[in-house]
Design brief:
About 25% of the residues lie in helices and about 35% in strands. The chain is an alpha+beta fold. The structure holds glutamic acid.
Amino acid sequence: MCGIVAYIGNKEAYPILIEGLKKLEYRGYDSAGVALLNGDLKVIKKNGKVAELEKHVKTEAHTTQHKVGIAHTRWATHGKPNDINAHPHVSGDGRLAIIHNGIIENYMSIKKALLERGHDFESETDTEVLIHLIEEVQSTQKLPIEEAVRIALNQVVGAYAIVVIDKNEPNKLVGAKLSSPLVFGIGEDEYFLASDASPVIKYTNKMIYLEDGDVITVQRY
Ligand code: GLU
């Protein structure tokens, strides 16, 4: 089981996400990563413990002034544990980022079709295939991100809890779940999506456990 935590609100996202990942460590994992939105999409990921990611971030990256972000601890199922296979994964156009818990069972046939249509992949994961599929639906049908996620997931067989962010729609988190847990936390002008209550409980005890088939859009106005 891996861990997912996502934040949208008025506070700095990075410390909340790192603290959240630490709360989820008990679930077991092999690598960790975050994606932060603030005009640009910044993705930082590392094989090993959350502490390794933090060390790497201290020397490499600017992580303040981001009020939206997603973070993940990975338990590898498709592709070995390494920096490239770690989540978040990014779409080919660099616009979208995804974190995913679970398995896309039919990823090979989707990947083959996407390769034929000109997509390139960096990782060996099923997750990267899903974000390219969402990207393709979004760009060909000119849809808001939540609609692209919903339509892309109709083609997917498997189990997932996902959260997707879009550089061009920076006020949204889009989550979805099937056979993997996802909790929606409602705070004071701040919202969370997480694998369980542990990263959220410090900020709010208002939580909704999403149901299989749910797609949720958390939008800040
Ligand atoms: N199947 C995905 C991967 O191998 C997600 C694994 C997980 O749940 O951490 O990257």
